[in-house]
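Two folds, back to back.
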Amino acid sequence: MLSLPANVRVFAAREPVDFRKGFDGLCAIVRDEFGEDPLSGHLFLFLNRRSNRVKVLVWDRNGFWLMCKRLEIGTFERVQGASAKVEIDRARLAMLLDGIDMKRARLRRTFPREIRLMKRDGERCGGPSS
């Protein structure tokens, strides 16, 4: 799995890409269609027409990395959005690369809706009803 610094963002292409493209062709898509700098260090994700292959382009200070993955069974989920690129978070990237269908996956709440602080004598601290 990829270990990414906190300042690295992940962008996915909404439309399929011709997978004959290499470093220069994908950099041109990032620059011209996404409006992003390919030398920024962010990850750029591309799917082929059949959605069974993914390419990830990233710059690492002295050269480009082009990572490819092919699923033997099934397809990768396409990202939905209004523009040519869609920003996704690390959890969605991990699920996408593992071939998990986000339409069927369910994200659970990880934080409580309300926090109630109590004083030692049982009286509530602060808040609107204090």
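---
second:
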Amino acid sequence: MTTSHRFCVAPMMDWTDRHDRFFLRQLSRHMRLYTEMVTADAIRHGERDYLLGFHPVEHPVALQLGGSDPGKLAEAAMIGADYGYDEINLNVGCPSDRVQSGRFGACLMREPDLVAECLAAMADRVKIDVTLKCRLGVDEQDPEEALFELVASAHRVGIRHFIIHARKAWLEGLSPKENRDIPPLDYDIVYRLKQRYPDAVVVINGGIATLEEAARHLEKVDGVMLGRAAYKNPYQLADVDQLFFGETADKISREDVLAALIPYAEDLCARGIPLHALTRHILGLYQNCPRARLFRRFLSEQAPKSTATADLLREVLDFMASAPQQDEPHPSRLPAAGFASIP
């Protein structure tokens, strides 16, 4: 196991794009990042630089694929490896209707032999790790039977790395959003899976909100993966390197994170990419801090404008660097100009 698997940020559709990953990498040098799911057909026929391009600073970074055709997945995995990804991950956990209609995602938990065939075909074409991310089961499946059968099939073809979202997926009756919260969590099944396969890397995912919770899971499994909690309150990730990877350096400040994003934002704007492509991901940087509401509102209102440039981040940085240690009693106390003029 590479040590970066001790702490990972989950693949999340519409969230973990290359701009978000660049931002997150400023917070931790070592945690493993994952792309949004990309279908094998999209990679084979689409604009590859758009779909697969990433900044070198993102390493270690994994590409998550969706699909159910072994040949197409193998070709997509080879293309991803050629782009420089550190890992290829197969999605057998997404419960959306669109994914089901394409015969990939969580519905594949009903076809463990096909999943194993796909994984074997991918692993045969690349030299980097091929991994599996799945749920505990779908619909009326018994979670213990479904999960252990799927992992056993993958294990037989040489797969040794499993990321388990510790919930079932209900393809009938629950929306994708509801599937993120309503099915109950069962971490103990994942712990038992690790006991059954001591030679495998088992990473646990689902409902983990804090680094303290993550540390407790590491007593039973090899790694933890945070999703929405990492996206909505990203600055907690600034403690990851010290807590999980033994780093001794001081953690980065929020202001240093913003400063690091300015050259990146300048490059985006120079290439005609809207500033909002980056800033939409950083709205939670000052979660629970003074002026956090002003920070979110200013970026939400100003960054989507066609005239927005990296100077907006400079303005934000100057303002937030002067923030008080405690919340100010009323926004009218702020200077009535620029960023601070927001009521």
